Amino acid sequence: MEVAVVPEDSRHYTASIVDVRCGAPDREAPQRGRRVLTGGGARRSTGQCLIVAPNKCTFLAPLTRQSETRSVKPIIDHLTVTPSQHESLDRNIPRKGPACLVTELADKKFGSVVNETPEIHICSNIRLYSPIVIASATMTRPHPFDPLTPNEITKAADIVKALFTHNVPNFRYITLQEPPKQDMMAYLENHGAERLRPARAARIQVIVPETDKTTALQELLVDLDKGSVIKRIPLKGKHSYIDAGYMQAVEQVCLADQRVQDEIEKMALPTGSTVCVEPWAYATDGMNDMTERVSMCWFYLRLVDNPDANYYAYPLSLCAEVSEHLKVTRIYHLPCAAHERIHDEPQPFDPRKIHSQALSEYHPSLRPLPRSTTKPYQVVQPEGSSFTTKGNRMTWEKWTFHVGFNYREGLTLHDVRYDGRSLFYRLSLSEMFVPYGDPRSPYPRKGAFDLGNDGAGINANNLRLGCDCLGHIKYFDGWHNTSSGEPLKLPNVVCCHEQDDGILWKHTNFRTQNAVVARSRILVLQTIITVTNYEYIFAFHFGQDASIHYEVRATGILSTAPINLGDKVPYGTIVAPGVMAPYHQHLFCLRIDPSVDGQRNSLQVEESEPLPFNDPDVHNPFGVGYTTTSRIIESEQGLDLDFTKNRVFKIINENKINAITQTPVGFKILPSYSQLLLAHPDSYHAKRSEFGRHALWVTRHDDEEFFPAGRHTMQSQGGEGLASMIAARKVDDGAKSGVRNEDIVVWHTFGSTHNPRIEDWPVMPSEKMVVGLKPVNFFESNPGLDVTIAMQERNKSVLVADQELAAVSSQPRP
Ligand SMILES: [Cu+2]
What we know:
The strands form seven sheets. Strands 13, 14, 15, 16, 17, 18, 27, 30, 33 and 34 form a ten-stranded antiparallel β-sheet that branches. Strands 19-20-21-22-23-35-32-31-28-29 form a ten-stranded antiparallel β-sheet. Strands 5-6-7-8 form a four-stranded antiparallel β-sheet, covered by helices on one side. The protein is mainly β. The chain has 14 helices and 35 strands. Helices cover 13% and strands 34% of the residues. Bound molecules: copper (II) ion. One of its GO terms (molecular function) is primary methylamine oxidase activity. The active site is at 450 (proton acceptor), 534 (schiff-base intermediate with substrate).
């Protein structure tokens, strides 16, 4: 097998495998730019493919005649490496050399194996050998839930480019158009039968210059199997999500504007300080024409010459607006007291606002030495992790699911099963909205849709070992695209690892004093995003008791506003001299697409209530009885929580009755009790974030409905969210509004009303919110009953003696 070898610094390449040979790697006559790939001589007769998988493992995969006749899959299934094979590889294969990657396998022999062009994945940063072929379990066709591969992104871009021969489109996204659910269910229920495999399709958004002054935004759906355009959707009046390159241009033109420079001059800023402009998307407030893009430019000061200095510690009163065509259209000064409004009077910088670095800096390079009392804490898993992955398919304990990723939602989970039983078709964070509560203009323009406007995928962090993730970590990369349609790798955007989670269950028989304890192990799928000043840590926790918990942690730096020394406002907290952190909310919407033991589910509302007392028809002589009432929601609607009634929302399958409880099997939602949107229902904030109106929504599944504030949130005017989707279907005789024993979607709105504390400054300790999904009468007993009992021989805890404790406590404080 011969492949092209490419330099390490290149982003992606295409190579064709042109031959399969046997024997040791050919170091005698390698052609320039090409290497021969083979396996060890011992398997000369069958042929071998050397596979270097992304996680430092090297495998020998037998490539037999038999396997050539069908699928590459069996090869992957039998990847094993014996110590002798490993040694052999270490001896025979040179370590140094360029990393290589192969994105296309077009050899005729392989063509007959997989029946089409398969994907071979890439790794450029791990232990690489050269000459090599890098392949992985993605050698087979992508699973229908897999994100688009680099090859597919290129192919989709080429199909679209061919439509615009006179204009070069600006590719905003090239992402997977997930298969219609009905098609996908048929595929899954038939164990991935090839004849039922849905077509691979891409959803592409482009901006195409029409004239010198106008551009047209449009979406295209492309069938990647047929190489054809399925649909073109003009998006007149809509705006694409935030373009980082465009925002940089906004920042530059703003700072370069002479009027802005004049205003900066008038502020008489401290010598050696640097002005920073932070452009924000405009939250609609009815004060500007929303057919054109407008950017808000907030000004800050970096007092010290360090790029990591916290400029939010010095918010300036200056503010500017920049038009779609990069012109500064307005400059004014912000109100700096409760009674003030925006004005044009020069506002000199008050030098008394300068305060110590220790108060406002978080970066170690600008802080005193950290405490030294914390000793290392290392996660040791002597036998490795308990999960396995096959491409994006994960298996852990009795769980299986598929990991997805896209530019907007970031991490998505698909086809979530426990012990083979279907639970959820898809789980995802579908939107979040961060409205600010300062009523003074222009602050109502601070209202960020961090998914719709920014993108959780495109802003996902490159996660690091030992920092974001402890223990044995599996990373997943994401792929996005450049503006010219090239694949763009987003490395390590999702991590997967196990954690100890305290005790799962325990009982001590008080008569025998025999204790039985099972510790809880959880599997964590985590992604972290940075949206300008803030970080969000999103993690799905899978439990051995068949529960899923979705945890959100908010951290990062408060977005700040200037305030005069000595002044106060009732909608913000003073966190440093002249620095006000405004009240704001973080509203998240978790989209739960259930398939609890099948596709037809219902939403049941159960409440616990006391039995009537002193009622001759009810036996409750001591007044202590209580019972539950249940109702099933019949039509699409928004619902609210009520802890006074212990209102519980259960997703049930009325067609599957638990043999023991004689009730429908189900999963209940453990909501994150939260205050909903505080903005007035007539405000643009409320109209634009309809999901913030209720804590729970139930809708009929629709293949196009993923976003509870609408698909296009940038400068949206409202009327495109969940409430509007429901209202639109009701007009249609309500024929598609029924949600009882139907294919339903449940949306949970939760979050925090964040009235900042001084302790949130200068960087905020994580604020944690958790939503749970837990089986209710789904199994026949505790599903974690068979978890291995905790034993010291296995867990090797270490006894700490009193002397050691004393030694720790006597250490001097730094
Ligand atoms: Cu906050």
